[in-house]
Specification:
The chain has helices spanning 11-22, 53-66, 76-84, 96-104, 151-161, 193-204, 214-221, 238-247, 267-270, 275-278, 281-310, 318-327, 335-355, 358-378, 384-397, 403-423, 425-441, and strands spanning 28-35, 40-47, 90-93, 108-112, 118-121, 167-174, 180-187, 233-235, 250-254, 260-263, 443-444, 447-448. By secondary structure, the chain is an alpha+beta fold. Strand 9 (250-254) and strand 10 form a beta hairpin. Keywords: Membrane, Transmembrane, Transmembrane helix. Belongs to the GerABKA family. The chain crosses the membrane at residues 250-269, 289-311, 379-399, 411-435.
C-alpha cells in the first residue's frame, strides 16, 4: 500500500524526507538553487544515469535560474510549471511516496520552498539498445526490426503499424519492490471487452516482489500451470504483435525485456509464422503442412522405433528388419536405453550450444554431434538406425516457429518413449489419447486451445493446416469473439 503522506511547504523538510526514503546513494543528485530574481529557494532531485542531464541543464535548470524574472506575475508553482520550464511533459504531484517513485523511475522532481506541490518533469535518458533484427525468431521475409528493452520504443513500433485512434494502451505497475511498468494494448471497438477485462483482472491479482522479465507475468496469468503447452504466446517481432492485435487479441508489454506476450493463444498460432501471410498462399500452405509433419516426427519417431523394435516386429518389412537387426548386433542395451542415451546426449549438446558464445556454440553442436554419434556406433553402444532416428527428430524439432511449442514437444517425447517401452504401440496410442484429451480441455484466457478444430468452426479452417488465399480470409478468428469480425469487404 503506497503511503499517502503529503508534501510539506518547507523545502528542507521535503528534501530530507525524500533523501531518507531513497537513501544516501551517490547516484541520487539533489541540486539546490535559487530561482532567478524571484528569490525562491528550490531543489531538483534525480538519479544520475536514468536522466538526460543535457535536457535538465538546458530546459529546466538554466531557465529556472536565469529566466525566472519573466514570471514574476505568477505564483511559485505556476511560474515554474507553465511559464519557465520548456520540457515536453510536466505534471504536478503532492504525495511524497509518488515523488520518490517518480525519481526512481527516471523523472526529475522540482521542489519549491513555500509550496506543498512538486513538479515532476519527464527527463528519461538512460542508455538503450538500438533496434535490431529479432534473435530468437529468424526473419525470412518481412520487417527486420525487433523489440528492445525500452517500453516506449516498443509501443512506438506498434504505433507505426497501427494508426488507429482506437488503439488503446493501459499502464500498470506490477511488483511491490520492482514497480515494473506493464502496458496492456488492444484496439477498442474490435477486441472483446470480456477478454480485456479478464486480462486486467489477472494482472491486478499478481502480488510479487519483482517482475524482471515477461516470463514472470506469463507464468502467473496462464490458465493451467501444470501443462507443458504454453498458454501465452511470446515474441520479439512487432509485426506478429500487430497482426494479433488486428485479430482482436491483447498484447502485454513489460519494461526491461524485448519479449512481448499475446493472449489468448491456440496451438494453431504456435504452428504459424508471420511469413505465412507475406508469401503467396501455395508455398505458405506447403510450409505449414511441413511444420505439422515435423511436429509428428519430433513427437512420435523415437517412440515408434522403440515400439517396433521391442514389441511389434511383425510390422517392420522383412528386409528393413534384417538391416536393423544387423545394425543392432553387439548393442548391449534394449532400445529404450539406447534411445534415452542418444536423446539425453542431444539435449545436453543443444543446451551447451545455447549457453556458449555463438561461434563456439555452433562448433560444439556440430562437432559434438558428429563425434559422439560416430564414436557411439563404433563402440556398439547404439545402432546406426538409432543415430538416424535421433538426427531426424532433432532436425524436426527445429522446424517450430515458436520455441515454447517445440519445448513442449521435447518434454512429451520422453513420456511417449516410456509409454512405448512399456506397452509398445498400445502405449504410444494411449499416450497420444491422453495428450489429445489434455489439449481439448486446455484453455487460454477462456479460449479452447485446439480451436478452431475443437470445438469445430469449419469456416475458420481456411487458416488452419492450409493458408487459403488472402481474399478468402474475410473474417477474423471467431474464437476470440471480436466486436468487429469482418476484416475485408
Amino acid at each position: 500500500m503506497m503511503d499517502d503522506t503529503q508534501l510539506s511547504k518547507e523545502l528542507h523538510h521535503n528534501v530530507e524526507e525524500i533523501r531518507k526514503q531513497i537513501g544516501h546513494s551517490p547516484d541520487v543528485v539533489i541540486r539546490s538553487f535559487c530561482m532567478g530574481d524571484l528569490a525562491f529557494q528550490a531543489a531538483l532531485i534525480y538519479i544520475d544515469g536514468l536522466v538526460d542531464k543535457l535536457m535538465i541543464h538546458e530546459q529546466v535548470l538554466k531557465p529556472l535560474m536565469h529566466l525566472a524574472k519573466n514570471a514574476a506575475e505568477y505564483d511559485r508553482r505556476t511560474a515554474a510549471a507553465e511559464a519557465i520550464i520548456s520540457a515536453g511533459e510536466v505534471k504536478e504531484q503532492n504525495q511524497l511516496a509518488v515523488c520518490v517513485m517518480e525519481v526512481l523511475s527516471g523523472n526529475t522532481v522540482l521542489l519549491i520552498d513555500g509550496t506543498h506541490t512538486a513538479i515532476v518533469i519527464d527527463t528519461h535518458g538512460w542508455e538503450r539498445r538500438s533496434i535490431e533484427e529479432p534473435v530468437s525468431e529468424a526473419v525470412v521475409r518481412g520487417p527486420r526490426d525487433g523489440f528492445t528493452e525500452t517500453l516506449r520504443s516498443n509501443t512506438a513500433m506498434l504505433r507505426r503499424r497501427i494508426k488507429d485512434p482506437s488503439f488503446t494502451m493501459e499502464m500498470y505497475k506490477i511488483g511491490r519492490r520492482s514497480q515494473t511498468d506493464v502496458a496492456v494494448l488492444y484496439i477498442k471497438g474490435l477486441t472483446n471487452e470480456a477478454l480485456v477485462e479478464e486480462t486486467r483482472s489477472r494482472l491486478k491479482q499478481i502480488d510479487i516482489d519483482e517482475v524482471l522479465e515477461s516470463g514472470y507475468i506469463e507464468q502467473l496469468v496462464e490458465d493451467n500451470r501444470m501443462s507443458p503447452f504454453p498458454q501465452v504466446q511470446n515474441t520479439e517481432r512487432p509485426d506478429r504483435v500487430a497482426g494479433a492485435l488486428m485479430e482482436g487479441r491483447v498484447a502485454i508489454l513489460i519494461d526491461g525485456t524485448p519479449i512481448v506476450l499475446i493472449v489468448p493463444v491456440t496451438f494453431a498460432m504456435m504452428m504459424s509464422s508471420p511469413e505465412d501471410y507475406y508469401e503467396r498462399w501455395l508455398p505458405s500452405s506447403l510450409i505449414r503442412l511441413l511444420r505439422y509433419g515435423a511436429a509428428f516426427i519430433a513427437l512420435f519417431l523415437p517412440s515408434l522405433y522403440i515400439a517396433l523394435i521391442s514389441y511389434n516386429h511383425g510390422l517392420i518389412p522383412t528386409k528393413l528388419a534384417i538391416s536393423i537387426a544387423a545394425g543392432r548386433e553387439g548393442v548391449p542395451f534394449p532400445s529404450i536405453v539406447e534411445a534415452l542415451i542418444m536423446e539425453i546426449t542431444l539435449e545436453i549438446l543443444r543446451e551447451a550450444g545455447l549457453r556458449l558464445p555463438k561461434p563456439i556454440g555452433q562448433a560444439v553442436g556440430i562437432v559434438g554431434g558428429l563425434v559422439i554419434g560416430q564414436a557411439a556406433v563404433q563402440a556398439a553402444i547404439v545402432s546406426p538406425i538409432m543415430v538416424i532416428v535421433v538426427a531426424l527428430t532433432a532436425i524436426s524439432s527445429f522446424a517450430f516457429p515458436q520455441y515454447g511449442a517445440g519445448l513442449a514437444i521435447r518434454i512429451l517425447r520422453f513420456g511417449m518413449m516410456m509409454a512405448a517401452a512399456v506397452l509398445g504401440l498400445y502405449g504410444v496410442i494411449l499416450f497420444y489419447i491422453l495428450i489429445t484429451v489434455h489439449m481439448t480441455r486446455l484453455k487460454s484466457f477462456g479460449v479452447p486451445y485446439l480451436s478452431p478444430f475443437v470445438p469445430a468452426h469449419p469456416s475458420q479452417w481456411k487458416d488452419l493446416f492450409l493458408r487459403f488465399p488472402l481474399h478468402m480470409l474475410k473474417r477474423r478468428p471467431a474464437m476470440v469473439s471480436p466486436q468487429d469480425d469482418k476484416r475485408q469487404k
